[in-house]
Design brief:
Chain lengths: 616, 225
């Protein structure tokens, strides 16, 4: 790659790339992020390549391998451009047909996505309800860009915001623009990004300043940062360069957890390509501005997502939070003033400068502008990444985009903000999604996890699960966090085993408030949220566990019993499925379960086709 | 100099002074387990929490690590602080009932009950020993390992350390494993503590004007006889 020596060089390169683009040639787009690869996207890519080579179609059809597009439920999926045809859950044999159809400019009706409401196939991706209701400013870029090809990025507006800023030449304006955009940190706390930048810009430039991109996304069931890191690493690099220009930082660090190998791979390639092209490193685009980014891999601790622990981890020490003040912006990595922003925050920066702060502020609510990616998972029809404007209601996301419950059971609650978030009950789904209203409801925005639960989920068990996670992931420095989470888990575990007492609920609440009050970092301060929110919204479930020794959702193993009702046809399917041979009965006669032998694994209930297994 | 307010008293201290140092200098007692003069503050035991700020923005911070700030308003014994300290002591008693220091603090704060499952651990992971070893003995022989409930203190890979001089400073500073409380009812975590006994030495009228500086108090030893 030839080094670009000036801003004009970059603009010329972009013009050339756009001019070379032939829009008449169809492109097969295969999303192959970690989620896509897990569901078999690599096989589709192999088949497609083979078909294109064997049939001599390499000049007639293009193939683009991209990051995740968001609709993970339907992966491995295929998108055909320029028409925008979407094929969900494509098998290997179907892929051969898809390639043939694209060559003939046909659409395969039988493979299209079927709208569950109307029962009719939907041709275009943009018409599918899941996509239609979103505002996909970040995720739609993943479709256009092969993450390991920097030219793809430049062709699609990549590094243009940076060029605009470098030619403008006013760092002060950069900070003011971010402030005016109303962007708030996407990591969870929602601190105004522009204000943070201003604080760093004002720091004396003694030993250099550091920018950090926090990609230590550890929440179970949340992966929005991963999709951006994997799908469009150049967007983050560009955002950081803009940040460096505005605040006067010379060093950048992208901290990615080691559990994201694909993100690390794509980011490493992207960093090298950007450096080779002269977009990063010394004398960027001949303007004399220097900024370099290094990649640091996390060693797998949830608490390292916390700012001060993250800095310790970058320095190579134990990932333990420290007292603030001094704030990172005063004294951070190696004692240098440090600014830490989440992956999504950095990715939003180029977008602000493309549309202008006034364009950005129009999306979302007034005090919390822009879009936010949520990872919508759990007992819901359409799981995946959804990008919605701030201020949308929870109901619109869960029932509108998510498509409502999977089975007959009604949706009971949604857990936002990862393990230290709270559960919001279904009767509060009118709540708008922004930092303040979620905090008021006893939950947090967090980095954007959204776990939907239906009536088959036991809320005590949910609280117990998250407390188990947190007691392992607490760093252990603060006594109240370490022991408090451990004791809360102990009490919750007792309740799910039917050993709870009513007095335990008061103790639990008292302890939860003290843990919230007395711990040092964000992890401890939010750790009691699952307990407190379930206690306030689902107290009756706790009481049922304690007083009647009954789990209404049929989850807590020690409180339920499996039995067979009259619906049993004697098909012997459950009898064969049972791993401990607890089911007896003759063919075509009603079977019975031996409660002594039964380990309550639920295999019989899953196998039964006649709804004959009762859980009480 | 930094001017701020402790329990309604306007004070001014040098920059860099922590809230704990300032409060103690002014005569406001704050209990600690992980703080020691001459070692860097760590903020692990959380007993030293004080309340800062006003209204809905009021919060608890560990006074040993929080630097004094201009115009700050701190309360060292508000009801919120006392509630938190009581719960912390209850948690401490549930894990480490045999420490005399913890038992004494519990009786000072009138902790009457211990509602958790009783454990008998020897370490509260306050980190005094590791800091002593590193900062005063310049040895760095021991350190923290693991995280969460698996966190423990020890030498690397649990092997005998080459740098350890067996100086015993780590044991000397330990609030839990030194000064064992020899209470008689191990199932019940609260022993009543020596602090609750009226020491025989000051019962006598002739010592009325004096204060006993015996620490640890020998009262319980006498009672045993």
């Amino acid at each position: 790659m030839e080094r670009l020596k000036s801003i004009d060089d970059l603009l010329l390169l972009q013009d050339r790339l756009i001019a070379d683009r032939d829009l008449t040639i169809p492109t097969i787009v295969i999303p192959a992020g970690t989620c896509g690869q897990a569901s078999g996207a690599n096989d589709l890519i192999r088949i497609t390549k083979r078909e294109l080579l064997n049939k001599g179609l390499t000049n007639k059809i293009h193939l683009r391998i991209t990051g995740c597009h968001g609709f993970c439920q339907m992966e491995p999926s295929v998108l055909v451009e320029p028409h925008g045809t979407f094929y969900p859950r494509v098998g290997l044999k179907e892929m051969v047909r898809v390639v043939e159809a694209v060559a003939k400019s046909e659409i395969l009706e039988d493979l299209l996505f079927v709208d569950p409401e109307t029962g009719k196939p939907v041709e275009k991706q943009s018409d599918i309800p899941f996509f239609k209701k979103q505002v996909r400013t970040l995720l739609s870029r993943n479709e256009k860009v092969d993450p390991i090809r920097i030219f793809d990025s430049i062709e699609n507006r990549g590094y243009m915001a940076m060029a605009k800023i470098l030619s403008n030449g006013n760092p002060h304006w950069v900070v003011e623009e971010v402030k005016a955009s109303g962007l708030r940190g996407r990591g969870g706390a929602g601190f105004p990004t522009g204000l943070k930048w201003e604080l760093l810009a004002k720091q004396p430039d003694g030993h250099g300043k550091v920018l950090v991109c926090n990609g230590d996304e550890g929440d179970p069931g949340a992966y929005m940062d991963r999709s951006v890191l994997e799908g469009n690493p150049h967007l983050i690099i560009e955002g950081m360069i803009i940040g460096a220009y505005g605040t006067g930082a010379k060093e950048g660090v992208v901290y990615v957890r080691n559990e994201y190998p694909l993100a690390i791979k794509h980011l490493t390639i992207a960093l090298r390509q950007a450096t080779d092209l002269g977009l990063l490193g010394e004398d960027i685009l001949g303007t004399g501005f220097n900024f370099d980014i290094k990649l640091v891999r996390g060693a797998g601790a949830f608490v390292c997502g916390e700012e001060t622990a993250l800095m310790r981890s970058i320095e190579g020490k134990i990932g333990e939070p420290c007292q603030r003040p001094p704030f990172p912006v005063q004294k951070g990595v190696d004692g240098k003033p440090t600014l830490i922003n989440n992956v999504e925050t950095w990715a939003n920066i180029p977008i602000i400068f493309e549309s202008g702060s006034q364009g950005f502020i129009r999306i979302g609510k007034k005090e919390t502008s822009g879009t936010k990616i949520f990872s919508l998972v759990g007992k819901i029809k359409n799981t995946g990444l959804v990008e919605v404007p701030m201020g949308i209601t929870i109901g619109e996301v869960v029932n509108g985009i998510g498509g409502g419950p999977v089975e007959k059971a009604r949706i009971k609650a949604v857990q936002t903000g990862g393990p230290s978030g709270g559960c919001i009950p279904a009767n509060m789904f009118d709540l708008t999604i922004d930092y303040e209203s979620l905090t008021q409801a006893g939950s947090i925005m967090g980095s954007g996890g959204m776990i939907v639960m239906d009536e088959n989920t036991c809320m005590v068990d949910v609280a117990r699960y998250f407390m188990n996670f947190l007691k392992d992931e607490s760093c252990g420095k603060c006594f109240t966090c370490r022991k408090g989470t451990q004791r809360m888990y102990e009490i919750l575990d007792d309740i799910t085993r039917g050993k709870g007492k009513l007095a335990h609920l008061d103790l639990l609440e008292e302890l939860a408030h003290v843990v919230k009050d007395t711990t040092m970092c964000g992890l401890g301060q939010t750790a009691p949220n699952p307990v407190l929110s379930t206690l306030s919204y689902f107290r009756d479930e706790y009481i049922e566990h304690i007083e009647k020794k009954r789990c209404p959702a049929g989850v807590c193993k020690e409180l339920i019993n499996y039995s067979i009702n009259k619906n049993c046809t004697g098909c012997q399917l459950c009898l064969r499925t049972c791993p401990v041979e607890a089911i007896t009965g003759k063919k075509k006669e009603c079977h019975a379960i031996d409660p002594e032998k039964c380990i309550k694994c639920g295999a019989c209930k899953a196998a039964c086709k006649f709804d004959a297994i009762d859980v009480k | 100099m930094i001017n701020f307010c402790i329990n309604g008293l306007e004070v001014s201290v040098e920059e860099g002074t922590t809230l704990l140092e300032a409060a103690r200098f002014m005569g406001f007692p704050i209990p600690t387990l992980c703080y020691m003069d001459g070692l860097s503050p760590y903020g692990a035991c959380r007993l030293c929490v004080v309340e800062i700020g006003d209204g809905p923005k009021a919060k608890l911070v560990s006074s040993c690590t929080y630097p004094a700030e201009e115009g700050l308003r701190i309360r060292t014994a508000s009801s919120r602080v006392i509630r938190a300290r009581k719960m912390i002591l209850e948690l401490l008693l549930a894990s480490c009932p045999q420490s005399k220091k913890i038992q004494d603090l519990a009786s000072v704060y009138e902790v009457q009950q211990q509602r958790f499952r009783q454990e008998y651990e020897n370490c509260i992971l306050c980190g005094l020993c590791t800091r002593m070893c590193e900062e005063q003995m310049m040895a760095k022989a021991i350190g923290f390992r693991g995280r969460g409930e698996k966190r423990s203190i020890g030498t690397p890979f649990n092997m005998q350390s080459d740098v350890c001089r067996l100086c015993g400073a780590c044991m000397y500073v330990c609030p839990a494993c030194q000064l064992r409380c020899t209470y008689t009812e191990p199932e019940k975590a609260i022993c009543g503590a020596c602090a609750n006994l009226s020491p025989p030495c000051i019962e006598k009228e002739k010592f009325d004007d004096m204060m006993c500086y015996m620490n640890p108090c020998v009262a319980c030893e006498i009672k045993k006889d």
